[in-house]
């Protein structure tokens, strides 16, 4: 149980496009324990998505070592699912809600088990009654919940989320944050999420990393700060956010990412 | 809501009124108007008579069925061939690199220009007609399939990789369904192209079917019959697209539009 879920040692990632090869991430070291909720905040273009893709095995690392439960990550691993920011591209518009959620289980479990697990996952994200709807008749927040249900139906070890609530309005965002925390309480899963929203990072996480850098001017992204978040669980949208510790953490993070230029 | 009332609402009354007006003007124009002296423009009544003559001589249904059969067969061949080649073009960049320009050149040759060549090579047979129409209908299917597959967002394939799907499973579960709207557009164009090519081929290549009947009526100066056949061709095209639309709506679930 004390084996880390993820272990990153001096990880660097280079990406190439037509303009040439660039170092996007450098010297990233971190350890994530099972069942932990870890937030990653940083300015736009600092390599957050790239880090997430490396964790998910979608982008190979260039230097250093990246292990998942002791095994080097060389591609998408079993039990690791990513919730992409662009749910519009990541979901299947020609399938109904239930069929979208069923996708990862098809051909892997018996029909009756599939039906049970799909309906449980749909219930968890509060989409009961919309099983047979096509995605086009769902709001953005509902579509993102479909993607979350599709991740949960696998009972994953790790859920990676890239700005999962970025495109949503404040109220939908708050309710989905609570859905996520509720799910984390019921299911043993490690959650790593990216956000632009400092408050979201504090509200959800056990630990938040700040990633800084400026890839365009030759300074690759790197982890510049690690902030433990010792706020009590279960968290509450009102009381948690009014705690002095919460305000102090918010202050620290804001300074770390230069929210208010000196 | 009674069934009759709902049909009543679906009927396009203004559209019907325009058609009726055209028929009336046609009849007046062709009997007393400036076109009355031109034997090549029959009146409505002459056209209806031509229709009746063809029907009585049993020269209407057999050519229509023949043309329809050949057109459907050629469309099916074109759709399968175009779908397969288009899928390969869409999926494999190296294949695209080597073959794209050849296809682009071949595609621009009008099928009517190839028909005399095919006639010389293969003879005045149904087989030649089917080959010509199949080739013609391959192109729209090929182009739409390849474009449809290439324009799918790469995220979809990553979703498949993330769930550990094999390449084949990703193609069948993700790529092809995602490209289905383009495939259906291509299929519809292929079918319509096939019908056009078959009618032309019946005039140039194989003396059968409605295209040949049309040419025969023209050469016999039977303008009533000729126009009756033109109207039949119109119906055939209309029925074809109606059937295809119904098929497409069945294949394409409500979510994609
Ligand atoms: N294939 C690529 N080749 C070269 N550079 C790339 C490539 N993909 C991304 N980059 C660059 O890497 C940097 C980090 O990108 P990344 O998407 O990881 O940032 P991010 O922190 O997720 O930003 P945002 O908050 O805006 O989503 C950017 O400067 C981007 O332009
Ligand atoms: Mg990003």
Write a structural description:
The complex is a heterodimer of chains A (262) and B (257). Chain A has 262 residues and is an alpha/beta fold. In chain A, 33% of the residues lie in helices and 27% in strands. Chain A has helices spanning 48-55, 87-90, 97-102, 111-124, 140-152, 170-186, 198-204, 239-242, 244-256, and strands spanning 6-17, 20-32, 37-42, 63-68, 71-72, 80-83, 158-162, 190-195, 207-214, 219-228. The N and C termini of chain A lie far apart (44 Å). In chain A, 39% of the residues are buried. In chain B, helix 4 (61-91) packs antiparallel against helix 5, helix 4 packs across helix 10 (209-219) and helix 9 runs antiparallel to helix 11. By secondary structure, chain B is mainly α. Chain B has 11 helices and no strands. Chain B has a domain at 61-209: Orthogonal Bundle (MetI-like fold), CATH 1.10.3720.10. Chain B starts with a helix and ends in a 6-residue tail after the last helix. Chain B has helices spanning 3-10, 13-31, 44-56, 61-91, 93-108, 111-122, 126-150, 154-162, 167-204, 209-219, 223-251. At the A-B interface, strand 6 of A face helix 8 and helix 9 of B. Bound molecules: adenosine-5'-triphosphate and magnesium ion. Adenosine-5'-triphosphate (ATP) is lined by residues 15-17, 22, 24, 42, 44-50, 215-216 of chain A. The site of magnesium ion has 3 residues of chain A, from helix 1.
């Amino acid at each position: 149980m004390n084996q880390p879920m993820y272990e990153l040692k001096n990880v660097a990632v280079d990406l190439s496009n037509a303009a040439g090869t660039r170092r996007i991430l450098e010297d990233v070291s971190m350890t994530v324990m099972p069942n932990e909720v870890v937030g990653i905040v940083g300015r736009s273009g600092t390599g957050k998505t790239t880090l997430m893709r490396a964790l998910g095995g979608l982008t190979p690392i260039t230097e250093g070592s990246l292990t998942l439960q002791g095994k080097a990550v060389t591609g998408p691993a079993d039990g690791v699912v990513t919730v992409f920011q662009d749910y519009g591209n990541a979901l299947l518009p020609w399938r109904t809600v239930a069929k979208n959620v069923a996708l990862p289980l098809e051909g892997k479990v018996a029909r009756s088990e599939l039906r049970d697990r799909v309906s449980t996952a749909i219930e968890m994200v509060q989409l009961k009654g919309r099983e047979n709807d096509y995605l086009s008749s769902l709001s953005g927040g509902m579509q993102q919940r479909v993607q979350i249900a599709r991740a949960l139906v696998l009972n994953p070890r790790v859920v990676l989320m890239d700005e999962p609530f970025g495109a949503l309005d404040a109220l939908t965002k708050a309710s989905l944050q609570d859905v996520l925390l509720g799910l984390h309480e019921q299911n043993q899963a490690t959650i790593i999420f990216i956000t632009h929203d400092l408050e979201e990072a504090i509200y959800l996480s056990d630990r938040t990393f700040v990633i800084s850098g400026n890839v365009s001017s030759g300074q690759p992204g790197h982890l510049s700060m690690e902030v433990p978040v010792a706020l009590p669980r279960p968290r509450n949208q009102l009381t948690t956010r009014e705690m002095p510790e919460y305000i102090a953490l918010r202050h620290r993070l804001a300074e770390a990412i230069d929210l208010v230029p000196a | 809501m009674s069934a009759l009332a709902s049909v009543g609402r679906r009927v396009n009354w203004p559209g019907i009124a325009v058609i009726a007006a055209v028929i009336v003007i046609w009849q007046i124009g062709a009997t007393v108007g400036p076109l009355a002296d031109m034997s090549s423009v029959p009146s409505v009544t002459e056209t209806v008579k031509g229709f009746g003559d063809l029907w009585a001589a049993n020269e209407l249904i057999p050519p229509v069925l023949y043309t329809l059969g050949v057109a459907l067969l050629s469309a099916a061949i074109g759709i399968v061939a175009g779908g397969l080649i288009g899928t390969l073009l869409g999926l494999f960049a190296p294949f695209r690199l080597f073959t794209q320009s050849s296809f682009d050149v071949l595609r621009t040759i009008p099928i009517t220009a190839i028909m005399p060549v095919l006639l010389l090579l293969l003879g005045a047979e149904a087989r030649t007609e089917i080959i010509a129409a199949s080739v013609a209908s391959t192109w729209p299917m090929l182009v739409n399939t390849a474009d449809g597959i290439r324009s799918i967002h790469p995220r979809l394939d990553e979703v498949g990789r993330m769930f550990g799907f094999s390449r084949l499973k990703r193609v069948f579960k993700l790529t092809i369904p995602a490209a289905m709207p383009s495939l259906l557009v291509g299929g519809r164009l292929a079918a319509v192209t096939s019908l056009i090519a078959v009618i032309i081929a019946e005039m140039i290549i194989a003396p059968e079917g409605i295209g040949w009947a049309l040419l025969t009526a023209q050469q016999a100066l039977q303008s009533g019959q000729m126009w009756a056949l033109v109207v039949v061709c119109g119906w055939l095209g209309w029925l074809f697209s109606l059937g295809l639309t119904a098929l497409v709506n069945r294949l394409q679930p409500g979510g994609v539009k």
